[in-house]
Amino acid sequence: MVKQGFAASHILFLEKGVVKLNVENRGKVTTFKIVNEGNFIGIMCSFVNKKLDFSAVAVTEASVFLMGREVMEKFIRENGAFALYTVKLMSELTNGVVHNLINLSHKNVNGAVATILIDLAEVFRSPGYELPFNRSQFADALGYSKESVINTLREFDRDGILEISGKNVYVKDMDKLSSIARNG
After folding, report:
1. pLDDT (tens digit per residue) in 13-38
2. Residue 37 contacts by C-beta under 8 Å, 6 or more apart in sequence?
3. Nearest to 119, CA basis, from 87, 150, 141
4. Which of 51, 70, 104 corresponds to the end of one domain?
C-alpha cells in the first residue's frame, strides 16, 4: 500500500480490510502494528517527516481513503473540535504503543505470544485468522528467538489452547490464552 521512505504527502484512512505496519532496519522487517478498518494508518508519523517511517502491507483485501496532508492540516487549523479529536487520537495511539512495548517487555515468551495472539483475534474480529507475518518476524517483533516462539505455538496447540496449521490460527480456549497473557 505504502513503502517506507516514500513521500508522506497523504493521510491514509483504512476503509476496509486489515493492514500490517512494518519498519525495515538493517535488512530486518519488524511488524509493529496491525490495523483494521475504520482507523488511520500511521497518523502518528504523518506530520513529523516528509518521508514515511514505515511500510503498510495489506493482510486482507483492503481499500484506503487518501487525504492530502495539506487538506488535513487545514481541517485542523480551521476546526477546533476536529483538532482536539486528532490530538486525542494521536495521544491514544502513542499511549497504546508505549504501553504495548512496556507490557510485552515484561512478559516471558508464553505471555508475549499469548498477548499478540489475543490482539490479532481482536483485530480480525475472529478467533480464527491467518498470521500476518512469518515465525521469524513474529519472534523479531517480540524480541525472542524464532525457536522459542515456535515452541510456544506448538505448546499452545498441544495443550488445546489453539489450533495452528502453517499460518492459520484458531483460538480454541480464549480464557486460558488470556490467563497466560495476564500472568506470563
Report:
1. 889 988 888 888 888 777 777 888 88
2. 14, 15, 16, 17, 18, 62
3. 141
4. 104
pLDDT by residue (tens digit) across 133-174? Answer: 888 888 877 878 889 999 999 999 999 999 999 889 999 999
Task: Provide the 8-state DSSP code for 48.
Answer: T
Exposed, middle or buried: residue 35 (CB in 10 Å: 0-12, 13-18, 19+)? buried
Contact (CB, 8 A) for 104 and 115 = yes
Q: pLDDT digit string (tens) for 87-120?
A: 888 887 777 777 777 767 678 889 989 998 998 8
* Distance from the first to the final alpha carbon of the chain: 35
Sign, CA dihedral 137-30-169-19, equals negative
Q: How many CA atoms lie within 13 A of 104 on its CB side?
A: 21
Domain, as residue range, for 26: 10-104
Backbone conformation region of residue 8, classed left if phi is above 0, alpha if psi is from -120 to 50, else beta = beta
Boundary-marking domain end, from 69, 104, 139: 104
145 with 61, same domain?
no
Global model pTM greater than 0.85 = no
95 and 112 in a single domain? The answer is: no
